């Protein structure tokens, strides 16, 4: 009988390490190169154009241009407030069970969305041709004295905006579940209190994003007010170009101011949306700065794949 010799178990062989090799997206590099080439060609074309770029920084802070930028911001805020208040009223009228109020609201939206803003501004500015005198019983005056360029711009922009805001508010109200209204009525709340305390706060998450877009659009649409002689940014720029003959340069100055104003309010819109989106399962899309940081992190880690077992 032979003695059996216990042998030590063989050491475990570790598994081979796996290298994760990232996929090369050559199409992205080609597309990026093409875009850069096109942008370079556009830059070369404008650099060789007959444009005096040296006067643009001087006019950016000119008193006349600053006054025009302030008037643009001023009329945009007031017209947006008028459109928002009237839009809420029209939305409630549109959803009312009263056939008269709902029909009037529908006709309002149909008319103001179906006619150009420029035509509406011109109608308000020339309304004295139709009604030479404004007589309200307690107040009477010549229409030319009442309908100033500011009032014509405010009514033309604000009443047109109300038609779009009414549809935005109506969509936000209808996004709230009907059970919220029924529960509020069961607690003894009136329709007005239910709308103010229950429906509208929940509808704000749907109303705020398109409202921010509408205001940014209002900043640009206010440029049409120059046809009624309102001293906004385009009107001021045109006045300067008529004496300095720097036509294109002044349009560049106005464009820079519009870009600055819309950029500031775009940032504010993002944080306002994030505030009203609290509790939602969906997250807001990243900002360009956040997306740039993410791309830089991906670029720094390119070619250094993680090693996993």
From TrEMBL:
Does the keyword Transcription regulation feature in the UniProt annotation? no
- Give an example GO molecular function: transmembrane transporter activity
GO CC term (a single one): ATP-binding cassette (ABC) transporter complex
Q: Where are the transmembrane segments?
A: 29-49, 69-93, 105-127, 251-272
Q: How does it sit in the membrane?
A: Multi-pass membrane protein
Keywords from the UniProt entry: Amino-acid transport, Cell membrane, Membrane, Transmembrane, Transmembrane helix, Transport
Sequence ranges assigned to domain ABC transmembrane type-1 in this UniProt record: 69-269
Entry protein name: Polar amino acid transport system permease protein
Source species: Streptomyces griseoloalbus
């Amino acid at each position: 009988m032979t003695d059996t010799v216990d042998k030590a178990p063989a050491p475990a062989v570790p598994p081979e390490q796996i290298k994760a090799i990232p996929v090369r997206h050559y199409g992205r590099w080609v597309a990026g190169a093409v875009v850069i080439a096109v942008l370079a060609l556009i830059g070369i074309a404008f650099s060789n154009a007959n444009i005096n770029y040296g006067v643009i920084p001087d006019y950016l802070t000119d008193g006349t241009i600053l006054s025009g930028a302030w008037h643009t911001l001023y009329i945009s805020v007031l017209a947006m407030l008028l459109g928002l208040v009237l839009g809420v009223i029209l939305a409630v009228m549109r959803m009312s069970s009263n056939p008269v109020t709902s029909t009037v609201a529908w006709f309002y939206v149909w008319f103001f969305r179906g006619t150009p803003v420029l035509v509406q501004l011109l109608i308000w500015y020339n309304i004295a041709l139709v009604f030479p005198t404004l007589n309200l019983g307690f107040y009477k005056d010549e229409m030319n004295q009442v309908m100033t360029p500011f009032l014509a711009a405010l009514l033309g922009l604000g009443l047109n905006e109300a038609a779009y805001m009414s549809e935005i508010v109506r969509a936000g109200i209808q996004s709230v579940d009907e059970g919220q209204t029924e529960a509020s009525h069961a607690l003894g709340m009136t329709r007005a209190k239910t709308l103010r305390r229950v429906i509208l706060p929940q509808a704000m998450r749907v109303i705020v994003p398109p409202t921010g877009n509408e205001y940014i659009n209002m900043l640009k649409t206010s440029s049409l007010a120059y046809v009624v002689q309102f001293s906004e940014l385009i009107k001021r720029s045109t006045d300067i170009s008529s004496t300095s003959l720097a036509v294109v340069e002044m349009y560049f100055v106005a464009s820079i101011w519009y870009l600055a104003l819309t950029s500031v309010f775009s940032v504010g819109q993002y944080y306002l949306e994030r505030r009203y989106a609290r509790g939602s399962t969906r997250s807001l899309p990243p900002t360009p700065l956040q997306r740039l940081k993410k791309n830089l992190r991906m670029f720094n880690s390119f070619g250094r794949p993680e090693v996993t077992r």
